[in-house]
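This part of the workshop introduces the protein records we will be handling. The structure tokens are whole numbers drawn from a learned vocabulary of backbone shapes. The record below serves as our worked example for the rest of this section.

===
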Amino acid sequence: MKAIEITKGVYWVGAIDWNIRDYHGYTLPGTTYNAYLVVGDKIALIDSAYPGFDNQILERIRSVVDPKKIDYLIANHVEKDHSGTLPALTKLLPGAPVYCTANARQGFSKHYDTTDWNFRIVKSGDTLSLGRDRTLTFLEAPLLHWPDSMFTYLVEEKILFPNDAFGQHIASSQRFDDQLGKEETLRHAQKFFANLIIPLAPRVLKKLEEAGRLGIDIKMIAPSHGVIWRSYAADIVNAYVNWCNGVSKDKVTIVYDSMHGSTDAMAKAFAEGIMEEGVEVKVYVLKDGKAEGTHRSNIVPDMLDSRAVLIGSPTLQNQMYPTVADFLSYLKGLEPGKLAKKKIGFAFGSHGGKGGAIKLVAADMRAAGIDVINEGFEVYYRPDEKELQRCAEMGRELARRVKSL
């Protein structure tokens, strides 16, 4: 296993996890755990990998230098997919300083036996010279996405090591954005943002502003998951700014489940009306979130750049359908209302008794920060032709509203 030089004296020495398919509650096509070796007169290792990937990390380091020659360990984040090999490294390098935030030190002590770890606590603006024109600057990033998180910046090469920010979950033989392709890389980055970063949007914008005030000029972004942004670093920063600000398209996402086809028929009628007005629409049926393309984590990226969201549910035992409840629980955790511009939406569905599911759906949508524009549309048993026509007309009305926003 070989290291890959990303610029002179800076190497990717991470690990590829080809097999992981679920993490943080969403589906993955595999991922990478990126670690970086910075070689000056002194040598620093930035981040590590999930437990069990020690050999990949050490073999890649060994292709550049003897791992025992590492002088400093930089720990941007406590979470085990970034720190799981640190115990092995601290044993290999007894006494080597571990640079991290104060919150990280506390977090590490709850995950590992850190009795013999040589912690060096850093704050925003602190630096570490590696000699030979190699200076690391640290930037605290609390709650991006854990309280302990921080960014590391290699001043001379203008490389930002932001840990989870700007990452993507993908297992690939390509290490760079231009190798994987701009659109493909942005697609994976959008899914990563939609499933992990949305609740942090206000903090992301503040952190980018802080980086600007500190004079951090970014030429390359080396995240801890996915490929490295060397050609399109400005594009992903701009994308994050747009996503955080709620910039969206003339687009509607419809999410629903159906027991006997009634809510399904309504969803399709809404979609037809929306399309008639020339607005893009994405339609997802949940079905336990297991079918390819309909897992909740594959839906929220489309919601991210949609101006409107429709959520449909039949009423079951006076409640919303379980799959819809699951999706809305996930959505409330993501808090799309944290985006600078709110999305609009409404609920729909059918029932065979007293109904009421759509009121619960609308309440959960509001709790997620979506601007519910009315109490929705609910039909008794199967929708008749007139009711389907009403769905289509409501779809057209919504599309016109979307285009006016």
